């Protein structure tokens, strides 16, 4: 299944807040949680919604998310925590968390259009996995910096995760360390996602 390009508020109403998907707020009076018609959800539905929340927030295809789950299973440590670390350390997500882009799709576009450098080299792969001590900078071009400046000016000045440092006047971000799970930018039960895929792949 390809990346979602349909109405974004429809997904927010069903799944809850997805800050990586859209920076816009729903219209006043809209019900994000569908609490007006509460229905008992099956365990499968609960696991499915957690999986969908993860997929739409990070802007992944179904195949991409499944691949990340398979990688996380083979790594050392709890599969759910490793999965979140893999997703959070993607270059497009790092740009979003630094405030250099208002959404993850916008960050992906910046990377695809070759506006971003990692350790002084252009990287045009949004899924590039950032590492500790990586330096993220914007190309020294007026157009590139103007695109970033708009988002730096408009992004709310929230506390950055401990694994990131931003130097806005230099258009530079630093990855201090691998992210700790408590700083993940999405309210998610990652164990349900792992459980969803373990049940889906059973033969």
TrEMBL record:
Span of domain RNA-binding S4: 89-153
Keywords (A to Z) from UniProt: Chloroplast, Plastid, Ribonucleoprotein, Ribosomal protein, RNA-binding, rRNA-binding
Gene3D superfamilies reported for this sequence: Ribosomal Protein S4 Delta 41, Chain A, domain 1 (1.10.1050.10), RNA-binding S4 domain (3.10.290.10)
Identification of the protein by name: Small ribosomal subunit protein uS4c
Main location: plastid
Source organism (scientific name): Piliostigma thonningii
Biased composition (Basic residues): 1-14
Name of the gene: rps4
Family statement: Belongs to the universal ribosomal protein uS4 family.
GO terms for biological process, alphabetical: ribosomal small subunit biogenesis; translation
Function recorded in the entry: With S5 and S12 plays an important role in translational accuracy.
UniProt cross-references to SUPFAM superfamilies, sorted A to Z: Alpha-L RNA-binding motif
NCBIfam families listed in its UniProt record: PRK05327.1, rpsD_bact
Domain Small ribosomal subunit protein uS4 N-terminal span(s) in chain numbering: 3-88
Subunit structure of this chain's protein: Part of the 30S ribosomal subunit. Contacts protein S5. The interaction surface between S4 and S5 is involved in control of translational fidelity.
Record region (Disordered): 1-42
